[in-house]
Amino acid sequence: MNKHVQRIIIAVSVLTVTALFAFFLKDILVPYIKFEIANDAEGAKELLVSKGVLGCLTVVIVEALQMVVVFIPAEFIQVSSGMSYPFYIALLLCDLGVCLGATIIFTLVRVFRFSTRASEKGEEKIARLTAGKKKSRGTVLLMYLLFIMPIIPFGAICYYGSRRDISYGKYIRTVATGVIPSIISSNVLGAAVRFFISRSLPLPLLILIIVLLAAALFAVLALFLNKIYFKENEGTPDSILNDFFFRTAHILRRRKQRLHIDDSLIRDLEPPYVLLLNHESFYDFYYSRGLVKNNNPAYVINRHYMSAPILRGLGEKACFIPKRLFTADFTTPTKIMRTVKKGYSVVIFPEGRLSITGRSYPIVDRSASFYRRLKTDVVIASINGAYFANPKWRKRFYKSDIYVKAERVIKVDELKAMTDEEFNGIMTKLLRHDASDNVVNKYPQKDKAEGLEQVLYRCAFCGALYTTKGVGNEFTCSACKKTLRFDETYHFTEEPFSIGAYYDRIKELEKRELDRLDLRTEVDTVIFSETGRYRTKEKGVCTLTREGFGYTSAKNSFSTGFDLLPALPFSCGQEFETYNDERLFYFYPRENRIQVARWALIADLIKELSDENEKQS
Predict the structure, then answer these.
(1) Which of 404, 435, 466 is the last residue of a domain?
(2) φ, ψ of residue 265 in degrees (nearest 5)
(3) What is the pLDDT of residues 336-354, one digit of tens each?
(4) Range of 393's domain?
(5) Closest by alpha carbon to 543, among 526, 566, 568, 563?
(6) pLDDT tens for residues 71-97?
(7) What's the pTM?
(8) Which of 461, 480, 512 is the last residue of a domain?
């Protein structure tokens, strides 16, 4: 259809809707409300009788035309009709109006090939919400779902349905029945308002009615989604829950982080494959998703994120694969294998924990033999720019450019011919990264150092413990008064220049004291059972020596050597954690929680020395 004709139709529709709204407000709704406020039931009844068919016709036409012009909301006319007419009449009038509008849209689309930008935007939203859904579900089921979702206008759904391969009879039956829940909710709301006014009931009661109605509709929607719609592709990366999770991440991060994706090496690579990446920030899962465009991947994540029963259930439906950090876990490899066999790629961060200095951690889990058993290609990729955008020790996000690049593809046959040492050497080399060596953004912010003492807990100049503090862009030791300042590239303006280099000096100081190491701290402990349910809280004491890590409380006691404890993961300024007997222990120091960074660093140092001694022997 000619665009000028489309504009004329839209303009006439908008003017007609506006005129009818004005008539409806002026001659029916406003006088009716006045009668109700005055408790004049007879006056209200006479008003409705005097307007008769014209009042009813107004509801039908307005409901129909607002669907053709999809950006006009339907709720107002539905609530108004519920206030003005008995419930069954209001329901019938609104449903007739919807059917009339749906018929007009069907005719415009099928006969005149009509389309507007508003309808196209609505269809684009539907396409995004239904990406990856199987066609076998059919247009009818999808339309039913969309009608009870509040984010899609009725008109957009009808434009969408009219363009699908569906007969008019099936189309109009779907529309007529699919809109009933929404119309009922609006009509009941209008009836509740009318009853509230006529009975002079307290406002809290009206609010309670509205809340209960919304809760009931939400429960019906949740039941429908869980029992029918979410079942499709459940447990795979194509599930709607997986899509919702990543769309939410996109909404949260798109204004702060600008992604630059270089997928030239894998653009034509057939899935499934394993994608290995360095781990700079919490949102690396989102940044890496843009690299895998031809196949929704599964992600191996920290098991604790799925510890709560409800999160575990949702995570399994979205196909997130839980992994116990630095603990033998035989279920994770099995789930990875099953996912690959289904044809889905898998994303893994081999470091197993976030970088705290911008430098990659040593790769503890060198699984060359496991990747070989998967019989799939292995892609090694890099993320750059994410660390300074939001380091582990700072809450605030900085606006940044994030670069994600596929660095190398190791084909199945090539991997098969490699020794474990060759593969591990390639993986370690390509994943090794130091954010300070390749700063891709400038950071003019005035608070770059704030929180840094949670990582650089010891003065690199005088050696004093817990005397450092980041204020603004300056990092100062209160003992020796040494002050370093950050420039716009997140480097100190004098030696040791970078966060990683400062951290190296702390490591050297700690190494000198390892022979007389005997750390001890009282902690508040939170223990999670294997099933993930919160189990108990208690008080205890943690110890760390060259021999290993220990914990003692009134009810629990264990010790672990560093042959079984590769690392102590921690949250800056909060806690450190470990597994024991299939339970996850979170330890919160009762005094000076900055010390958790020291416990983690010393555990790493002892593990490094233990590995070196093992190699020499």
Answers:
(1) 435
(2) -75, -25
(3) 999 999 999 999 999 888 8
(4) 240-435
(5) 568
(6) 555 555 566 666 667 777 878 888 888
(7) 0.68
(8) 512
